[in-house]
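Format notes (please read before filing issues)

Several people have asked whether sequences and structure tokens are stored in separate files. They are not. Every record keeps both together, in the order shown below: the sequence lines, then the token lines. Line labels are part of the format and must not be stripped during preprocessing.
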Amino acid sequence: GRSFFSTAKGRIGLGPGFVKEGDMVCIFIDGNMPFILRPSISTDENSYYTVLGEAYVDGVMEGEALN
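Then the structure lines:
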């Protein structure tokens, strides 16, 4: 299923049903759809994330966030 969420900047979105506080909205280079990422492991040198799935976020679709 899917669930509604809001970002720290007040944007409204629809994403995977298991989205929780602390997850991140990310748009990959040359991408036009945001994804939800969850931090999983961090070391002194690297941070790793789990991709939870695609999302709809008002105002950031189709590259709008980069304009």
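For reference, the curators noted about this record: The radius of gyration is 12 Å. The chain has one domain: 2-66.
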